[in-house]
Write a structure and sequence with these properties.
- By secondary structure, the protein is α/β, with parallel strands linked by helices.
- The protein has a single domain, classed as Spore Coat Polysaccharide Biosynthesis Protein SpsA, Chain A.
- Helix content is 42%, strand content 19%.
- The chain has 12 helices and 14 strands.
- Strands 1, 2, 3, 4, 5, 6, 7, 10, 11 and 12 form a 10-stranded mixed sheet that branches. Strands 8-9 form a two-stranded antiparallel sheet. A two-stranded antiparallel sheet has the order 13-14.
- A hairpin with a 2-residue loop joins strand 13 and strand 14.
């Protein structure tokens, strides 16, 4: 085939990719990282790798997120919300606007390139039972010394979380390492920082459960996908970058409501709801109580032994046995 013929074939392949995948970014006070995320999305759009939908959860005027969208997202469909409805509900707004075969949800502090899109589409085409796929996610800033690759793994159970609180690291032991460039493998959970879904399956399931305001929404979605007889895969050959936690940090920077890098209120309410939904209210309450009792004992012992430890009282001030309230905002 001639060079011209090769170029035409390549152009046709790119056009097909662009007609088959939609990127969805949900923003809220995302100005610190949004420019880089939009720049990477624009490279994908220019290569006809995907369409882009941006949903802004009513970022206040004190943060320039909407100014950045007006300036740098002219190639995208931008949906400006009137309230902060949370990450999962924002993703559902983007999913409703999606007409392609596949969708990729990614955080406003994540970046992907056109070749990653093509790798993922090729994989999902070859695995029709795959409803969710996760690329290899490199977390951290530009300094390699402060980067790590996001693990995937089994869905956490109440026993795992109680074991973690007692210092047994049960959920850690069930994680699956992702080796960059390695072979794809099946798993039970992939990170919502960059998650690819088969649109027909996600819409059939109703998208993300809207009661999760923040955290655990992708865990719940993965659980429902598996319960529906579908598959979840990790694709180490598709590599993306994610800084991590920037919108949450902006929301919580003026408070002390932080636990392991998360906004504690949303984290513990969402976790309790997830456990109650899939394991029952008793198991969910037992998890909270065991953690409340065990955490100070374990952390106090670690401190006595001269090991790294969090403050023994850190868990006490955060929600116990409480569900996220239903509604559009918070």
């Amino acid at each position: 085939m001639s060079a011209t013929g090769d170029a035409r074939t390549s152009e046709a392949a790119r056009a097909r990719a662009g007609d088959r995948l939609t990127g969805v970014i949900v923003t809220y006070k995302s100005s610190r990282t949004l420019g880089a995320a939009l720049a990477s999305a624009k490279r994908c759009w220019e290569a006809a790798a995907f369409h882009l939908v941006v949903v802004d959860n009513a970022t206040p005027s004190s943060d320039p997120t909407r100014e950045i969208l007006a300036r740098d997202a002219t190639f995208a469909q931008v949906i400006l919300g009137e309230a902060n409805i949370g990450f999962g509900r924002g993703c559902n707004v983007g999913l409703a606007a999606t007409t392609t075969e596949y969708v990729v949800f990614f955080n406003p502090d994540a970046q992907m390139e056109p070749e990653v899109v093509r790798t993922i589409i090729e994989f999902m085409d070859a695995h029709p039972k795959c409803a969710i796929a996760g690329p290899a996610i490199i977390h951290g800033e530009d300094d390699p010394a402060h980067q790590h690759v996001q693990a995937v793994g089994a869905l956490a159970t109440p026993a795992d979380l109680m074991g973690d609180a007692m210092g047994l690291h049960r959920s850690m032991r069930k994680r699956q390492a992702v080796t960059l460039g390695g072979a794809p493998f099946r798993t039970e959970w992939v990170s919502g920082a960059m998650l690819v879904g088969r649109v027909s399956v996600l819409k059939q399931l109703g998208g993300f459960d809207p009661r999760f305001f923040l955290y655990w929404e992708e865990t719940d979605l993965c659980r429902r996908v598996l319960d529906g007889g579908h598959e979840i895969w990790a694709i180490p050959g598709a590599v993306v970058r994610h800084i991590g936690g920037t919108s949450a940090a902006e929301e919580a920077k003026d408070t002390k409501d932080r636990f392991k890098g998360c906004i504690a209120k949303h984290f513990f309410e969402s976790r309790h709801y997830y456990l109650a939904k899939h394991h029952g209210r008793l198991a969910a309450m037992m998890t909270d109580v065991v953690e409340l009792v065990a955490t100070p004992l374990v952390q106090g012992l670690r401190k006595v032994l001269g090991r790294a430890a969090r403050p023994v009282w850190q868990r006490w001030g955060y929600p116990v046995g409480r569900m996220p309230r239903e509604g559009n905002g918070h």
